[in-house]
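chain below, 242 aa
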Amino acid sequence: MNNRIESNPAFSPTRLKSIRAADSVNRVYQEIKELAVEYRFRPGQKVNEVELAERLGVSRTPVREALNRLVRDGFMSFVPNKGFYARELSADTVRQLYELRAAIECAAYRLACARATDLEIEEAVRPWESATDPATGFSQTRMAEADEAFHMAVARLSKNPEMIDALERINARIRFFRRTDMETQPRRQETFDQHARVIGHLRRREPEAGARVLEQHVTLSSAHAILVTKEVVARIFLAPSA
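prediction:
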C-alpha cells in the first residue's frame, strides 16, 4: 500500500507539500478575511504582516498571498514599497456596493423566474419560511444572517455561477452594514413583509413585479446603511483593532 502511494504522482512529496501550502493559504485567507469583514482592521490601517503571521502561526508567505487575494476582493489596498492597508470606508462606497447588489439580485431574480423548477423554488424559500418569525424572534445578528441566506438562495436559482460569485463577494463587504440595518424591530418587520412579497411573485413567476419589490427592499437597506455610516465608523474605532 505504501509503495503504491509513494509511486503515485498524486501522492508524491512535492505534490503533498503543494497541497498543504494551498490549504495553509486558504486557511489564512479565511481568517484574515473574517477580520476584514468585521472591520477589525480600521479603515486605512496599515497591516503588519509580521504580527499577523505570528498571530496565525504561519510564515509571511501565506499571509502575503492571502492579503493579495483580499486586495482583489476589495478588502485591502496595496501601496508599492509601503505595504497593505485596510479598505477605506465612505458613504459613497456603501451606496455603490448596494447599487451593484440591487442590479445583480434583480437580474438573478428574473433568471430564477425563468429557470428554476417549482421544487427548486420551494427548497430555496423553505428555510426562511420555516424559521421563527424573524421580525420578532431573531436577534439582529441572526436576522442579518437569515436575510443574507435568503437572498443568496433566490440568487442561486438563476443558475448563473458568475452572478452568484459576484453577489457573495458583495455580501462579504456589506455584512457589517447589513447587521446595522437590522437593528430596529420595525426594519426587521419590513424585511419579513418584503421577503413574503418576493416569494409570492417568485412562485407565480412574475419577474418584473418581484424585481421591483426586490429593488425597493435593497434600496431601503442602502439608504439606512448610508445613514448610519458615521455611526459604524465610530463603532469601528471604538472596538479593538486587529
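The CA atoms of residues 24 and 58 lie 8 Å apart. DSSP finds twelve helices and two strands in the chain.
thats it, cya
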